Amino acid sequence: MTEEPILKINSIEVKYHEVILVLKGVSIEVPQGGIVALLGANGAGKSTTLKAISGLLKHEDGKVSDGNIVFLGDRIDKKNAEDIAKSGIVQVIEGRRVFEHLTVEQNLVVGAHLRRDRRAVKDGLEMVYHYFPRLKEKRNETAGFISGGEQQMTVVGRALMANPKLMLLDEPSMGLAPMLIKEIFNIITRLHEESKISILLVEQNAKLALSVAPYAYVMENGRIVMDDTAEKLLENPDIKDFYLGLTDLGTRKSFREVKHYKRRKRWLT
Amino acid sequence: MQYLPCGIYHEYYQQDHAWWQTRFVIGKMILLGIFIFYILPFWGGLYWVGVATLTIYTIMGALGVQLLIGYCGQVTLGHAAFIAVGAYTATLLTLQLHLPYLLSMFIGGLVAGLWSVLFGLPSAKVKGFYLIMTSLAAQFVTVDFILTQYVSQIGGRGQAFSLPPGSITIGPLVLDSDLKVYFLGAVLTILLTMGLANLLRSKVGRAWIAIRDNDIAAETMGINIITYKLMAFFVAGFIGGIAGAFWVSTLAALSPEHFQWFWSLWLVGVILIGGVGSIYGTIFGSLFMVLIMEGLKFIIIPLTPVYPALTMKFLFLKEATFGLAICLFLIYEPNGLAYRWWQIKNYFNLWPFSY
Q1: Domain map (residue ranges) of chain B
Q2: A190-234: per-residue pLDDT in tens?
Q3: Interface membership of B212 toward A (CB under 8 Å)
Q4: What angle is formed at CA B241 by the lines to CA B240 and CA B247, rounded to 5 degrees?
Q5: For site-directed labelling of B246, which of A3, A106, B153, B213 has its Cα 20 to 30 A away?
Q6: If you classify domain B44-350 with CATH, what class do you get?
Q7: pTM of whole model > 0.90?
Q8: Residue A98: its chain B contacts at CB < 8 A?
Q9: How close does chain A come to B321, measured CA to CA in Å?
Q10: Yes or no: domain A1-88+164-230 corresponds to CATH 3.40.50.300
């Protein structure tokens, strides 16, 4: 990482309701045009990190109480959500939040809310349909009635319509069939290669995430406990145990061993 | 352009977004126009013109409620307040300052819109039940306090503004007959409905629907939630104000009693029955409510010789029917009449092969 990273989080602390300390000094860098994965168990603070970046914390009475977030040289941790969106960060919220009474195409057009130019909106639509041909077939269908995978595509497509510089993807694989997950991840990889968007990917499925992202951070209990390139993380015995669920032989473990590893995990944090 | 929608392929966005896509639809619209502007007023008789005028007023009032509840997700139970603001502003401007009626109607709409924005401000912080409470505040503060205690005192008559026949004029045309009022209302309703329907197809409308469906996702798309919510309040208030200013032309005297809280509730009932989130729903709901209440009269009047107390209890019966209708609709057709209409249309689109 020689050039200036597009997003730099400097040891932020996030508190909810002024008392619950969720992030205890998290630092993350996303390089220009790179994909970075953020791994971790439930409750580790991954989604909170994304919300801190996109300014959605105030909906849950949370705030960044220490540290700062720098995006393209500007501090954004004090800005509100729609200014952050204007500066070029778009978050794909977890759980496929389509606008369910609008059609697929209207959903996409809402994504282009900040773009003034009609021409650009049309080009954006063409681009999204190019990446997600399935959405073109469904363009006039109400988004609440399409399948989960198509909804996820709609949501990712909607984020693309805003022409973002940085896309925050929160668990794109949640609740989808493995085949569809593969399709969506293939599209994300293609997208990244062709349009050079930087992506910060939050994912439970560590194997999948590490196959897409060349660099990853591992979070636990509100801290970054490890960060390395994907190859090295895949080699790391702890990661193998905790996130990939494999021993050296590639078999699942017995309960006794898991308990033993839990002890090791504590050491890790 | 073809007659029926089957087998049409759109090649341009313009075709895709056209209002009326087939000749069949245009034909229907022409028939509807003939019905509204010729058959009903000239062949229908004064009674039906009166019923139609009430329907028109209900449609205009309910449009604003539909926008707030159905399209922006901001539940309001105080819309009569904004109708009242429009009515009072227009009346005061016409009677005291002798402004032309249409101009004062427009100003009435603007004032009502701004008043609505004032009471929409809490929506930046609160949602759901608490917002209902603030909208109730709008009703009671505006109608029961400001209008009753202060505004009604202007001119020194105490309770009501008298509107003698002939006091409302559009240029040289004096609005003194039911028929003229009906025509004015029909034109206004068509303009407002088309305006709102078009607004809902635009960027603003999509932003409103996005806020209704998922406000957090809308915010990540860069939609300024507060601005758009207030914009919805303004437009709803404006439409309400126009409705109020129009209603003035049918009245002989204007008093706060025309805008009681029950009327706010009534408008919410109208869109519940018609269908939330649909312009059709507003129109069907208004038709249904007005016609049912008129039909009730025809049922009650023959019964009065047998059971004379019914005449005394008519008002009670009206409210009970209102409640019953809403209950039945929520249980059996929660999506309202508009959904039924949509199903019927789809059935005929596919007829005779149902899939």
Answers
A1: 1-9+16-35, 44-350
A2: 888 888 889 999 988 888 888 889 999 988 888 888 888 888 888
A3: yes
A4: 90
A5: B153
A6: mainly alpha
A7: no
A8: 213-214, 217
A9: 31
A10: yes
